């Protein structure tokens, strides 16, 4: 299917205006794949025809569906495993000591897609109940896509999705097989919450988090948008909290208030806290 340059530019502009994400030339090859299901559902013959409908402005809801289809929602349980090992063996024990007085822990997964990262975090706590008995654990997942947030709230995944990143024992222990898929156990669903949120907006309630995961999201933003996102993340991070980014992301040259933790490779913290720990 041929896609004109003008249609590609319009789609790129829509995506950036709504989400801050860029549709770079290296990502434009996936336009046809991303929009194919929507075109079939609506009986639209081509992307250029879709653009004509959008430009006429008669169906505002259609533009929302187009933008959501263009988002990269790739994720899976315990993605890249090592970051979760770091959280489990280093970050959480340290936070447990620091928050022993309040026995409250707040975690934010920004750009959570269909929720696999959030439920992975919930499993870390559920698998160690003795250490967290009596604690108030609040795990928030946010995403700019309404469709992804609804999927995350349901906690239901296909056979293929539930097997990605989970061992058979974890799958059987924490998910219940239902017609059409596997649903996260109630003990996990009680511990998490989800909401639609744009990373470029003011941080979600309660505004200060002990641990923030924002992995493989910022790399899709242009430099100015990325700096703005870092400002939001920094303002939402507790004074002694940690931020985790994706493997290809860094704060260097983009977030002057944040610095890599010298002892926990892959985690970032407020610069003044990093200096104190040196």
TrEMBL record:
- Gene3D superfamilies annotated for this entry? Vaccinia Virus protein VP39
Q: Which domain of life is it from?
A: Bacteria
Q: Which Pfam families match?
A: CheR
- TM annotation in the entry: none
Q: Which SUPFAM superfamilies match?
A: Chemotaxis receptor methyltransferase CheR, N-terminal domain (SSF47757), S-adenosyl-L-methionine-dependent methyltransferases (SSF53335)
Q: Which InterPro entries match?
A: Bact_Chemotaxis_MeTrfase (IPR050903), CheR_C (IPR022642), CheR_MeTrfase (IPR000780), SAM-dependent_MTases_sf (IPR029063)
SMART domains in alphabetical order? MeTrc (SM00138)
Q: Where is the CheR-type methyltransferase domain?
A: 1-275
Recorded coiled-coil stretches = none
The leader peptide range reads none
PANTHER family in the record: CHEMOTAXIS PROTEIN METHYLTRANSFERASE, CHEMOTAXIS PROTEIN METHYLTRANSFERASE 1
Mind telling me what this protein is named? Protein-glutamate O-methyltransferase CheR
Q: What is the native source organism of this protein?
A: Sphingomonas humi
Q: What is the lineage of its organism?
A: Bacteria, Pseudomonadati, Pseudomonadota, Alphaproteobacteria, Sphingomonadales
């Amino acid at each position: 299917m041929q896609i004109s340059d003008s249609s590609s530019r319009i789609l790129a502009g829509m995506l950036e205006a709504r989400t801050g994400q860029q549709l770079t030339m290296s990502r434009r090859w996936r336009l046809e794949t991303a929009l194919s299901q929507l075109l079939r559902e609506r009986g639209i013959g081509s992307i250029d025809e879709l653009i004509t409908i959008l430009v006429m402005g008669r169906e505002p809801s259609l533009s929302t569906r187009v933008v959501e289809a263009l988002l990269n929602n790739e994720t899976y349980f315990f993605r890249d495993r090592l970051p979760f090992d770091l959280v489990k063996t280093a970050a959480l024990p340290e936070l447990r000591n620091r928050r022993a007085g309040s026995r409250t822990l707040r975690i934010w997964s920004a750009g959570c897609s269909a929720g696999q990262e959030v439920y992975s975090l919930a499993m870390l706590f559920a698998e160690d109940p003795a250490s967290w008995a009596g604690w108030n654990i609040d795990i928030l997942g946010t995403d700019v896509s309404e469709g992804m947030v609804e999927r995350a709230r349901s906690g239901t995944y296909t056979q293929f999705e539930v097997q990605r990143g989970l061992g058979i024992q974890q799958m059987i222990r924490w998910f219940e097989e239902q017609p059409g898929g596997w649903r996260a156990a109630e003990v996990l669903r009680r511990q998490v919450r989800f909401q639609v949120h744009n990373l470029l907006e003011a941080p979600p309630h309660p505004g200060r988090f002990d641990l923030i995961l924002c992995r493989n999201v910022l790399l899709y933003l242009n430099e100015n948008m990325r700096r703005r996102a870092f400002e939001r993340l920094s303002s939402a991070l507790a004074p002694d909290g940690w931020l985790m980014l994706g493997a290809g992301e860094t704060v260097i040259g983009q977030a002057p208030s944040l610095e890599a933790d010298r002892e926990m490779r892959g985690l970032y913290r407020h610069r003044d806290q990093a200096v104190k720990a040196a």
